[in-house]
UniProtKB/TrEMBL annotation:
InterPro entries: ABC_SsuA_sub-bd, Solute-binding_3/MltF_N. Belongs to the bacterial solute-binding protein SsuA/TauA family. It comes from Curvibacter cyanobacteriorum. Residues 46-264 form the Solute-binding protein family 3/N-terminal domain. This is Aliphatic sulfonate ABC transporter substrate-binding protein.
Length: 336
């Protein structure tokens, strides 16, 4: 792994606050209860990381102990906490239960910011628009997004899939009011999809690759020309201000992990399949659609965050307009 770049201090900006989304709704959906939730004081000698099953790069570092080795010279221990979706992960980040998040879909940060979260952007994965899609069953009569009008569609609220659906409907002159939303976790959505309770499902990899290969699901529309699907890495702003050296080490490890996975696709898929319990071919298909290229957060990425936030506020899905540029952005002093 490469040596971490020398950190560049972040400059905090004033955060805009709004009435908070239900913390119970956001947090209690996590698969893993956090014992640290009862203690909100951050510990400078430990890095608590939240991740999901789709967090390939973080899972890679976790499974091989690479981050622990990189942070040993800084005398920082690592603790790992798994979540089943991005919204409770970022809420845990906001209330001080964890210090940094693995990647979350591009639609997730605007939801958290609308709830008043104090978050710092520290990295992105470059666009992977085909890594999420609207799918229908192989025997479905639906052949276009326009035909979703009046249909029941499953997706995770606040996920990148949510934004993809908004954009796909808008392209056809429709809105979220023209369908019947079914806000479901990936596991519940797949069950509903396969038993015919919903007409379509909006989902991301590796769940997308799994339902394609195992059930023959057919893609109605992917993110191409609709949603670039960058994945964002965030940290609690107080932690980012106090430990930019830790973020620098984490950033370097994520870059190196992404490089290794793209340069070794078969070996990476074999490793990842064992970790998440899917077959190797499915994981390799999913990995081909993800860029895994970790880069600094740039103006283009933040501009897209603003477009996503505006789309949600205009649709009255979040309670107010979010100003993304009020959130701090950590930048490494040098990148490859």
């Amino acid at each position: 792994m490469t040596q971490p770049p020398r950190p560049h201090p972040i400059t905090p900006r004033q955060n805009a606050w709004a009435p908070r989304l239900s913390r119970r709704q956001l947090v209690l959906t996590s698969l893993t209860a956090l014992p640290a939730f009862n203690s909100l004081a951050a510990d400078p000698e430990r890095l608590r990381i939240g991740y999901q099953k789709s967090s390939t790069l973080m899972i890679f570092l976790k499974s091989r102990g690479l981050l622990e080795k990189a942070l040993a010279p800084l005398q920082v221990n690592v603790q790992w906490h798994e979540f089943n979706s991005g919204l409770p992960l970022l809420e845990a980040l906001n209330v001080g239960a964890i210090d940094a998040s693995a990647d979350v879909a591009d639609a997730v940060p605007p939801f958290a910011l609308a709830a008043g979260a104090r978050l710092t952007y520290y990295a992105i994965e470059t666009p992977s628009p085909q890594a999420q899609a609207i799918v229908v069953r192989k025997d479905s009569p639906l052949t276009s997004v326009a035909q979703l009008k009046g249909q029941k569609v499953a997706f995770a609220k606040g996920a990148g899939a949510h934004y993809l659906l908004l954009e796909a409907l808008a392209q056809q002159g429709l809105s979220i009011k023209d369908i019947e939303p079914a806000y479901l976790s990936p596991a519940d959505a797949r069950a509903a999809f396969e038993n015919g309770s919903v007409a379509a499902w909006v989902i991301w990899d590796p769940f997308l690759a799994a339902v394609q290969r195992q059930s023959g699901a057919r893609i109605l529309q992917d993110g191409a020309k609709l949603s670039s699907y960058r994945r964002f890495y965030l940290a609690a702003t107080p932690y980012a201000q106090r430990r930019p050296d830790v973020l620098a080490a984490l950033y370097a490890q994520l870059q190196a992990a992404g490089d290794w996975i793209k340069k070794n696709p078969s070996q990476a898929a074999e490793w990842h399949a064992q970790v998440i319990g899917l077959d190797t071919a499915t994981v390799e298909a999913a990995n081909q659609r993800r860029s895994y290229r970790v880069q600094p957060v740039d103006a283009e990425a933040l501009a897209e965050q603003q477009r996503i936030a505006d789309a949600f506020s205009q649709a009255h899905i979040i309670p107010r307009r979010v100003q993304v540029n009020e959130s701090p952005v950590w930048q490494p002093s040098a990148t490859r």
